[in-house]
Design a protein that fits this description.
The protein has 11 helices and 14 strands. It is α/β, with parallel strands linked by helices. Helix 9 (about 305-310) links the parallel strand 12 (about 290-295) and strand 13 (about 315-320). It is elongated and about 60 Å long.
């Protein structure tokens, strides 16, 4: 099976380079290109693509309007946004991710066409791998390269028996990790937490710099709790939500009676910075046996697995997002299959469960 793909961008140059990038993969079928959303919708109706690469800013019908129509009329089509490296692009791209775009790719800044081509091809590999996982077909390989191992697909499974479940009598912190599909999932969790939430909340979402700022601002506008992009030296406060900034690991340290956010530029873990494992390990060190509620949401890979394992040596209850509601059932699956999840829930049930367990209603 080939991945039928449509490229939508108002720039002739970018339509050309993106088309060439896609042709470098022997399992991609380029069904066409379009300079704006109106023409794109016509071509979608004609060719029924699996994947649409969609520019953010275009004349006549921009990326957000087009995405909205695609989500309404063709919910099975996967959309990847093409974002310029500007603040305005980042803001709109975050909005698109919250609306259900599966991921985004950034246009290179360089002037060398060959370097730009290679950068885009490199950046597309994980996205195309993701689409293959969603379509449950064999692993993508660029032309001329030997295939590598098959990725884990989101097939139903029966997790092994988990460790003895312990529900802490009192919780001190809510810690959340997410990746691909995370902005949409967080939008179904954070806005439904009450203003009087009795604990601070810390979040790692795999995202580049600038994008996390706009995600925090967007969530803050929708939520009863105050959502901030974390900064060095911030004190954790009950009822506030702190989102790790892109490009920096976030850890929590004890300073006297205060829990303080510290940021660092240590090497990526699980190819990510910020990384969920880094945050979760620091929480285990700082909070010890004080009750921690951890939540692992949708995402590729297994970032968060080792962090949850470390937290479980202390006093932690872990919720994972159910496979049926994940964009990518990777990070939650790793925790489930290690027997570390205490409760697997559809994403829209997670905020209600969080409130119940924090109130002591879950035993």
């Amino acid at each position: 099976m080939s991945i039928k793909t449509l490229v939508v961008d108002d720039s002739v140059a970018y339509r050309k380079i993106l088309s060439e990038v896609l042709k470098a993969f022997n399992e991609i079928e380029l069904t066409g290109t379009a300079p704006n959303g109106k023409i794109a919708l016509d071509k979608i109706a004609m060719h029924s693509p699996n994947l649409v690469l969609l520019d953010v800013f275009m004349p006549e019908m921009d990326g957000i309007e087009t995405l909205s129509e695609i989500r309404k009329k063709y919910p099975s089509i996967y959309v990847v946004m093409i974002s310029g490296q500007t603040t305005r692009n980042a803001d709109i791209t975050v909005q698109a991710l919250e609306m259900g775009a599966i991921d985004f790719i950034m246009k290179p800044k360089g002037q060398d066409p060959n370097e730009n081509f290679e950068q885009l091809k490199k950046d597309f590999i994980p996205i195309l791998k993701l689409i293959k996982i969603k379509l449950n077909i064999s692993f993508i390989k660029p032309l001329g390269e030997k295939p590598v191992g098959m990725p884990v697909v989101s097939a139903p499974h029966i997790p092994p028996p988990h460790l003895k479940r312990i529900v802490p009598a009192v919780f001190s912190l809510l810690a959340i990790g997410s990746s691909t599909g995370g902005p949409e999932a967080l939008g179904k969790v954070i806005p439904f937490l009450p203003a009087n939430l009795p604990v601070p909340v810390v979040i790692v979402q795999h995202m580049p710099p600038v994008f996390t700022k706009f995600l925090a601002e967007s969530l803050n506008k929708k939520s009863q709790v105050n959502v901030l992009e974390a900064e060095e030296g911030m004190e954790l406060t009950v009822g506030k939500v702190y989102l790790a900034p892109g490009g920096h690991h976030m850890i929590i340290r004890q300073e006297g009676q205060k829990k303080i956010i510290c940021l660092n530029d240590n090497p990526p873990e699980n190819s990510c910075r910020p990384a969920v494992d880094v945050l979760f390990r620091s929480i285990a060190n700082t909070y010890g046996n004080n009750g921690i509620l951890s939540v692992v949401l949708t995402g590729m890979g297994q970032d968060g697995l080792n962090g949850v394992r470390t937290l479980k040596r202390h006093n932690c209850y872990c919720i994972t997002q159910s496979s049926s509601t994940c964009v990518v059932y990777g990070m939650p699956r790793a925790v489930d299959e290690a027997g570390l999840s205490d409760k697997s829930l559809p994403v829209d049930q997670i905020p209600v469960f969080i409130q119940s367990i924090l109130k002591g209603e879950i035993k």
